[in-house]
Amino acid sequence: MLSPFDCALLRLLSFFSVGEFRLLLICIVSTLPTPTAIASAVAFQTEDESCTAEVVNVVFIDRSGQKIPVQGKVGDDVLHLAQRHGIDLEGACEASLACSTCHVYVSQDFVDKLPTPDEQEEDMLDMAPLLQENSRLGCQIILSKELEGAEFTLPKITRNFYVDGHVPKPH
Description:
- By secondary structure, this protein is of the alpha+beta class.
- Helix content is 34%, strand content 14%.
- It contains 7 helices and 5 strands; from the N terminus they run ααααββαβααββ.
């Protein structure tokens, strides 16, 4: 069974991972040296309730209106969660609050469950096209259990002045 430290390490690494498999491999290799222990840890990872209790299910609605359900962990931000799942949320400034390309609409039922945006986020949102009352920057939305079932809709456009046909890549 994974220790609380291992679960904390999994949560910490998930922010920087590209995918859950790579995250699991990194954690196991760094904490369990033998192949037998690795196989055991994989089985425990999928069954360990203390780690799965931190899962948050949310839905992204892309620009075509397609709903994409994903699982994140408490502490993940919406920008990196979207990128990890191949959702077209750009984040040109790499979450440094210097652009509005991770602009999303938060489903009305969950707007009040988020902290009030600070002045810097509001300044960046002022530059976002198609601003609405429920607009937020994905890099500033940190998943919590209260956001279970939240929907994040991508606006029809963002403003980043790159050429047509450019496909943004996760940073």
